[in-house]
Amino acid sequence: MISVDPDRFLADLHRLQSFGAANPGLGSGKGVVRPAYSDPDIAARRWLAGRMEEAGLAPWFDPVGNLFGLADAERGMLLGSHSDTQPEGGWLDGALGVIAGLEIARAARAAGRQDLSVVSFQDEEGRFGVTTGSAIWSGQLPLNEADSLTSPDGESFAAARQRMADLAGDWIAPGRFAGFLEMHIEQGPWLDRAGEAVGVVEAIVGIRDMTITFKGQQNHAGTTPMAGRRDAFQALAAFNAAIAERFANVVTPQTVWTIGHVALHPGAHSVVPGRAAFSMQWRDSDTDRLARMERIIRDTADEIARARGMTVDLGRMLGLDPVAMAPGIVEACAAAAEEAVPGRWRRMPSGALHDATNAARHMPVGMLFVPSKGGISHDFAEDTDEADLVRGLQVMAAAVDRLGPGPL
Amino acid sequence: MISVDPDRFLADLHRLQSFGAANPGLGSGKGVVRPAYSDPDIAARRWLAGRMEEAGLAPWFDPVGNLFGLADAERGMLLGSHSDTQPEGGWLDGALGVIAGLEIARAARAAGRQDLSVVSFQDEEGRFGVTTGSAIWSGQLPLNEADSLTSPDGESFAAARQRMADLAGDWIAPGRFAGFLEMHIEQGPWLDRAGEAVGVVEAIVGIRDMTITFKGQQNHAGTTPMAGRRDAFQALAAFNAAIAERFANVVTPQTVWTIGHVALHPGAHSVVPGRAAFSMQWRDSDTDRLARMERIIRDTADEIARARGMTVDLGRMLGLDPVAMAPGIVEACAAAAEEAVPGRWRRMPSGALHDATNAARHMPVGMLFVPSKGGISHDFAEDTDEADLVRGLQVMAAAVDRLGPGPL
């Protein structure tokens, strides 16, 4: 029976917040500025390594700065998340999962279990790639490819990880771990809105993403009559309206789609735009549904282009398939949740990517969510009641208890 | 009776095309690259000054490079347009009006009329401002303001006009001229589509232009449900659809409106856009209609923002009022057109701005259009049948005949 210490857990969480804490005098609350490989990020990882050592775990940095706290046992579960933040991030995104993992492994050791390891992956927030550190660790992203990635401020990944070179040891083989369990804030509104305490993640949604370009006829905005225009922005607007209508019969309340980037050419007040390039991204936990949406997108784009005497270019589609959580872990979490907060938890998909996506290439994975106040994340205002944080920790500990030290 | 020489007119027009002629080997046809103050532009103006002198006119450059060919008479009409082009322009836009004016003044002198002056305004195409040369000449744009304008390639107007400093004399007072008549290609499809030879312009349409910004809530594109989003792009799309519907009862086939520039913030595939700033421009020849459209735009933007829990910022409105052509000049042109091409001409508005807009601050103005093949302009492919060019010249000469040398 793992008996966690809520005070020690919260104290560690607050201490981690102090690395890169945004100036609270400026109304930034518990906000944190601790992007991957920044001085505060490296300092936080050094402190975390010390806390792991104090807990009886062997701290270990791999070549890209992923920090492991390794158990003595040859094989066991890995618990954790990431401790880097967005450029303007909250105090819980990633940090919660790392400190929860640390507290559970620490408490488990006190109860005689020496099989639980802890991790803080590097650059989950994607200064360079997408969940960069765990992507490289899992073999999803080759290191030489990663080294040539560049951050928005112009630093190469190779140069960034060099800043932690004095700490770096060899790679930790994923095969060493029997499973991965990650606690995280929901970053969405569902739990908070329903007054629920815990979300048991069943799948991390899949993502499809493509850039679509309508090509019409650039023209003088004064002399070209409306009826004779082949206005690429108008094609985009018609496409946007048509897919919303056609998606209605296909989607669930969890399905999302987004046009987040638009570039008109030539982009002048007095010129009918001849070209509109825009991003189309859609997410769902069901691969079939993603494919049905893709069909609608392709057909609608073609129809609209044809009807307007225009052409459309559908760019290469980025595809990340949904990742199912391991049924054994899901059920252990569900049973623990029902015991701790009966009727006040739900099974749900994760709309965001997490390190668990990459870990799933090698082992059974699971995730537990706690509520995000107002659904806000990636913002200084991100927060969760401390009672909910502790409850999440206790549910996770109980799930780890149920799973036991054996093979999953 | 002014008797123009079609061959001399066409020869001059082709000679002017040779200054900055785009490489015809690259399929650019009669295309021209002769932006204001470029070497080809200055060379073309030196050649034009020579042709004016040969025609018995006194060539005169003002401080910004507007080139006048001045008649002997104290007072008389001014004919012309501009000889600078778009970065990738056609051979007729502006050039036609300058050479037509030159031919008519030249032919008139041979017939004993010495009252007609000619002009090629500078930077009508707006490397710097909007119809820059005639705007400064007319007092619409103060010279010190113009000097601080910068071209897209980073040159200041002050530096650009310095390149013609060796040619520059003093200003030519607009009060010297009794009226202004400008022949131009239509740059739209109406005449070409109807098989008509001449358009008698009754008004240059007014323009309203503002930047509108919807502000919603920037959010994670994976974890934010569709129903909870305050997506600024979706507000823009809804606005675009709603104004088109509401305009339907207000507009004429000549009314136009354009969203030519869109900027989403932060403009990322994975982020629900929290801000959408876009250009809204509308044009019509009736001030009341422009105002009714403005009311619809403001009301619709407010309604859409309110309904979506967002805010909207309506930027400063640029307003250029419609400019009516002088009735005396319109009727002289109409009578000349009806005589030359009975039933094959129309009265029409100009959807584009022209130098005549600025001249109208000081004198009665008129404009004559000839067809643009396919309505194409501001493009290498811009063209007009030479028979139509000559017919336009003859109608303009006949109109100048009817107006006579006296006060308008």
UniProtKB/TrEMBL annotation, chains A, B:
Residues 206-305 form the Peptidase M20 dimerisation domain. It holds the Pfam family Peptidase_M20. Keywords: Hydrolase, Manganese, Metal-binding, Zinc. Coiled coil: none annotated. Zn(2+) 2 binds at residues 93, 125, 378. The keyword Zinc-finger does not apply. It comes from the Bacteria. Its cofactor is Mn(2+); Zn(2+). GO terms for molecular function: hydrolase activity, acting on carbon-nitrogen (but not peptide) bonds, in linear amidines; metal ion binding. The keyword Zinc applies. Binds 2 Zn(2+) ions per subunit. Belongs to the peptidase M20 family. This is Zn-dependent hydrolase. It comes from Mesobaculum littorinae. The lineage of its organism: Bacteria, Pseudomonadati, Pseudomonadota, Alphaproteobacteria, Rhodobacterales.
